[in-house]
Design brief:
By secondary structure, the protein is of the alpha+beta class. It is built from 8 helices and 12 strands. Strand 7, helix 2 and strand 8 (about 140-145) form a beta-alpha-beta unit. The relative contact order is 0.08.
């Protein structure tokens, strides 16, 4: 078991574990930590706790110290410098005629590196751009190509639901989303209805997917012959979340709605598939 704290460096960013050393650090406290990128400023979102070895990436980097007001001022200064770096980089991108879209710029806390995030349709030869930026900023330069989902997460916005984007407010990681999830939830397959601002399938399709999959396993398929307390019929509709089954009764040619419990309760004929 390892004693760790969970630290985020961006709102809705990934949570990374660090060795708290001798510190007892409560949630919402800001800390200075050592990362692979250098010295960074982050917020503790998981206070001291014990985790198994398989849940951490060894060796654990250490928390250097609790952040103080001067560190917050340094972060604010870095953000101001990043805005200027964004403007300069945009000018250089246009000057070199590169087919890329600059999304964000970020300084590491110790100013050891400046990172430029961009999107592009393919590979971009930015070697000359890096030389120009290194000459201007006199520090290590990293250009990182990101996807459209990461772009939406960084920029934020309002989704089709009218709420702020999930990815920019609370989702730490992107989970795989498939068109099958939309089909299972009986949603319109019109891309404009099930796509987010990023143009990819909406992350929220994943939220209820497990519930739909569990419910579908217990329900018959559309078109399946079925025995009911009112006689034999054929399934013509399903309300998956409420476990309701619409059955067209063959004898009276009428559609009747049953609950799943009504069809499988003791004393009633159970659902049976017929080949």
């Amino acid at each position: 078991m390892y004693d760790v704290v969970g630290v985020r460096f961006k709102k809705a960013g990934k949570i990374y574990y660090f060795d708290p050393s001798e510190f007892k650090i409560p949630n919402e406290e800001f800390v200075i930590v050592e990362t692979v990128r250098g010295i960074e400023y982050g917020k503790v979102v998981i206070s001291n706790k014990k985790v198994d070895a398989e849940d951490v990436v060894l060796p654990l980097k250490k928390v250097i110290r609790i952040a103080d007001p001067k560190d917050k001022m340094t972060v604010d200064e870095n953000k101001m410098a990043a805005q200027e770096a964004y403007r300069v980089c945009e000018e250089k991108v246009n000057e070199h005629g590169l087919d890329m879209k600059l999304v964000d710029v970020e300084y590491t806390f110790d100013r050891n590196k400046v990172i430029f995030y961009f999107t592009a349709d393919g590979r971009v030869d930015f070697r000359e751009l890096v030389k120009d930026l290194a000459a201007i900023f006199r520090t290590r330069i990293e250009l990182r190509q990101i996807g459209v989902r990461d772009e939406a997460k960084m920029l934020g916005g309002i989704g089709p639901c009218g709420r702020m984007l999930c990815c920019s407010t609370f989702l730490g990681d992107f989970e795989p989303v498939s068109i099958k999830m939309a089909k299972d939830q009986n949603l319109s397959l019109n891309p404009s209805k099930i796509s987010g601002l990023c143009g990819r399938l909406m992350c929220c399709l994943k939220y209820e997917n497990d519930e739909y999959e569990t419910a579908k396993e217990a329900l018959p398929d559309i078109g399946e012959p079925i025995e009911t307390p009112n006689g034999r019929g054929k399934v013509v509709g399903l309300n998956i979340l409420e476990r309701l089954i619409q059955v067209e009764l063959l004898d009276i040619e009428r559609v009747v709605e049953f609950t799943l419990d009504e069809l499988i309760e003791e004393g009633a004929v159970s659902i049976q598939a017929t080949d």
